[in-house]
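RECORD TYPE: protein structure
NAME: Crinkler effector protein N-terminal domain-containing protein
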Amino acid sequence: MVKLFCAIVGVAGSAFPVDIGADQLVGDLKKAIKKEKTNKLKDIDAADLQLFLAKKDEGRGAWLDGAGAAAVALDERGHPQGCVLMDPTLWIKNPKHFGDNFQPGEGQVHVLVVPEQEHAQTGLWLVTGSVDNALNMKGIRCRLYRLAGSYLGYYDPARRAEDKDNALWYEGKTLRIQSVRDQ
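PREDICTED:
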């Protein structure tokens, strides 16, 4: 049995110990983490946890401490920069992870936990357009309002002003449209 200290990325002071057998899988470690932090991870399945070795320099450097784990920067995918993703199909004692002779030290964090997040707007597109000399075209604004209000489009919350949804607006004689669309 080995005691690993884990920290949830983005949650300061979240380091906690987990006891796990060296001959168990990283997938089993996910389940142990989920069991240890049932309240913090209540809406996330153990399989959806991403675990990273909390070592600097892509697994070649020193173990992070609590402050280092709290200050870890994330890349564009939400992964801790410079840390290696642990393979859930490999043993804890695998040399890619901790090895046979692993001895935890005081104050070290060994595993960074990243709960996989759903991205609410990954399937939406922002559509913008304009109609020059729209004031000279009869009915164009009405037709565009119908299009923006149909099932095809949604108001862009960034254009909301004075408690009103604004999908269409004039800039001089140019009519502008902006809406959010499903893929």
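COMMENT: The two ends are 49 Å apart (CA to CA).
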